[in-house]
Amino acid sequence: MEYKLLSKITSPKDIKKMDIARLNELSGEIRYKLIETVSENGGHLASNLGMVELTVALHKVFNSPKDQIVYDVGHQCYTHKLLTGRYDKFSTLRTKGGISGFTRPTESEHDIFFSGHSATSVSAGLGLAKAKMLKGDDGYVVSVIGDGSFTGGMVFEALNNGGRSKAKHIIILNDNKMSISENVGAFAKYLAVIRSRPEYYSFKANTEKVLNKIPLGEKIVKKLYRIKTDIKNKVYEQSTFFEDLGYRYMGPIDGHNIENLCDALSSAKSVNGPVLLHVITVKGKGYEYAEKDPSVFHGISKFDVDTGEAISSHKSYSGFFGDTLCSLAKEDKTICAITAAMGIGTGLDCFSEKYPDRFFDVGIAEEHAVTFGSGLAKNGMRPVFAVYSTFLQRCYDQIVHDVSLQKQKVVFAVDRAGFVGEDGETHHGLFDVAFLGTIPELKIYSPYDFALLNEDLHKALYEENTATAVRYPRGTENPITKLLSRDSTDYSTYGDRNSDVAIVTYGRITAEAVLAVDKLKEKGSSAFLLSLNCIKPIAEDAIASLISKNKVFFFEEGQKSGGVGEKLGNMLLERGYCGKYSITAVEDKFVEQASVSDLLSKYGLNKEAMIKKISEEF
Question: What are phi and psi of 149, to 5 degrees?
């Protein structure tokens, strides 16, 4: 397709003079570009297709970066990137060295915050707006947040704080799941449009000024406000929750009508104080397959544009976990599954269909999910909380105080452990081992294949007496790990047991270590591989098997600081180890976006890097 308008956009200024017809034409080009690019690179499609007109209107009405736009989660920022000078680089979306699939301040002055986690935009936006107010900056701050993110408790903390503010903070609630009730009908829609126009607020402000100058005028204004509010509530059949908090509520507005959106945003600018603008959009708008199944196209790998079918169909750890939990739940009525709005992503879609009474989607509320699970456990259920490693970071206090201290048996199925690839800095699962490792009595398993994952889940549910985490990576298993010897349920071995050189690792990169041992053998060198399945606590006999080795090389797909490598090294020293010990892991930094294979190579964790590291020491 020829992008006649989009290809000429180098900054938001380029759309300021476009009329509504041109803006609609531009939106069509943007929508096609999104489908084209995501089909090749993977990414978040449905949410971005629903945001096209709203983003165009935002940049038509506001002046970024003086006016600051904060996107919640940030996965719906693709149109924003196209309108802020990144069209020429858009084909590099989510690739090594390319532009991010989320907002990234190091990439553009128009990206205000790194954003990859939910429910943060209102707090961040309020802080930005208050800072502008204190400095005398007349710029606006807009927080764009989806209705799904409104299930996060942090949003309500921010709303409670922000409603008392006089800052120019506009919150746009992008509602892509609810619709205007049928009994509201055309009259309510008409009123919503009228109330969103700048002339409405100008007339309202002038009327209040006149009334306030006459005797009893102030009382008349208050009475009229109460009457207006009562009528509005009857028409919309909704509470005045936002207005009770101190926000001027506007909407609902059709999120795909650019003219109405521009009117509404201009009106929001004229309000002296915080505003909440309610916008209705269709997730997946303009692409039939995404509209029919927006959950599948929320985050998707490469797909065929004509059929909507994903190109890769290998069984993933997430899918295997979901199937395994379903099988266990068939026989055990006490097993419950918990997710924080990630049922499909964590493989629980099958569980939700078969056992709806024992499936709990708590929304984007990971902290609540953990304590809720503790309550389930206390009264005799077996809760399993399936959560991405990066989102488990939000739950540290609840795991410590509400689960481990209470000695409740909650199972944490930690998905996307290690490098996740193209989602980048905000999504890598590199911290869970370090922070979970500090929690007393909590046990951690890190299986290297599906068979071990199956065993570990069973042990976590039926053999352990404490909270247990079972962590596994994104993607699928490598069958080469079948070559390992299962010396114990806590560890496996491979290679020459009598070698003076030991390779120690766990999880996904065990497969890389197996290949490294084989390659070293071809070169005339031998090595002994110890793969830890239980990484907390580490089995005593596993430690004992390393004491006699002259050189121990630990490879870890996670943070070096606080990782398993450091702990094992200390344990060896405490037991009198006199050989050389080295750790290869992620140093004190955040990891950029790239494919998992590229990242394993860069951080010295693939077979080639392992061989090079060990060969240099022989």
Answer: -70, -20
